[in-house]
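Two proteins follow. First one:
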Amino acid sequence: MAADTVVHPYAVAGFLASVFPLIATPGASLALLIRQVTEQGRRHALPVILGTVGGLYVHATLAIAGPATAAMRSGRAFTAVRLGGAACLIGLGVWTWRSAQASPGAGRPGRATSRRPRR
């Protein structure tokens, strides 16, 4: 895209409307949202929603703008993206593992976190 090219507002609105079904479809982000709300309350829902929507729009914009296409056509760029993604996933795994060890009993299946009912 040239520096003097201006994107028409209707094109931007059409793009945003076309990406909306991707955002509205339930998936891992909905599971994260439900977990955050049930564990920490409704006030923790907005950061999850904004992060999910923002990430999807950034990804879709980059896919249209060309870096994704350039990474797919260049072997070195694609390898760099793959290695960066792998490093990110390993980092998230280590972070999750450490946080699970720091809070004993949290996240283990079969363990009730609620109180016993009164008799």
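Second one, unrelated to the first:
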Amino acid sequence: MSYRSDPSLKEKNEEANQESLSANFMSWFFKSIAWGVGGLFALSMFNLLDRADAEQKSNVDLPTGPINNHRWMGWENPVLDEKDGWNDWNKLLNPNNLPVWYDNFNKIPSTKPKHHWVMVIDTRKCVGCQACVVACKSENNVPLGVFRTVVQVMETGSMESSPNGMVVTDDGNYEPNVKKFMLPRLCNHCDEPPCVEACPVKATFKRQDGIVLVDYEKCIGCGTCIQACPYNMRFFNPVTKTADKCTLCVHRVDAGLEPACVTSCVGRARIFGDLNDPKSEVSRLISQYPTARLKMSQGTEPQVFYIDLNGNLEGSTSMDEVYMEYTYTIGFNTTAYRKLGGKVELPKIEERKNPFKEFEK
């Protein structure tokens, strides 16, 4: 008997298929419930673990007081403190217990210091990439809005009228007779630092090796030293509530390393070394090339030497003012950006002499 000629066989086959579908559905249904219950259990366990971890972190006693932005606290943050020496300012600022001065700086040479650290900046090599600025902020945990070093990017010159000029306006054609100039700026670590003498609580001092530093635990944030600096190279740290400045990466120097801005300079425009060593690179450069220092008339004896600074700024243009090109070249004592295209006075350049004539003999 064939399948087509037996209706009862067809009905039995359909019933069997329905029973199979029903069994498969029930199996899938119960498996789904089991997976769902297991997932809820696992999720609840993860939540319990996260809650326990959060409670453990909340038990850490975060410091209170003026420092309340924990993202910028560095060594002050107990969560980030690795007990690696950053929480001991005496070891950080002067680990070798060098003599320090608060005045009478002219007596330092008579103590015959082993080193006298200075920086030479070759403006011919600076391209204004700002790598040194970024490296400084990263190395020293400098907050937003303030800088320990900047590179001022400026344009000198003017647009001159020319019949075949590439710049076409309604008033005629013009040819740009301009050039860029980069001026890296940082604390000059002066031999006669007025900022040190101005501090009423002796929070800022000059080490025997020439580096000028601020003891942030003593500083009361009065701003007297900031006003005393003729170079505008100190600023008020909005996190620590103290005066702040370039330290020449003193923690690296004491460890035998160069400052972060020097190691990151792609054109090797920044050179750091010992002025007491006549064979050092800084001594060789100062002896070989005419150098300039900023605002020598102030009597501060700055220890940052610039190569080819006069030639770039006192050439055919001989401008007393230059135009700012980028907004990141802001002042150190303010977070207010200058209007793009505004003017800024250029620091006066008053020295061409060669202080290393004795080494040429």
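SUMMARY FIELD: The longest strand covers residues 172-185. The first helix runs from residue 7 to 58.
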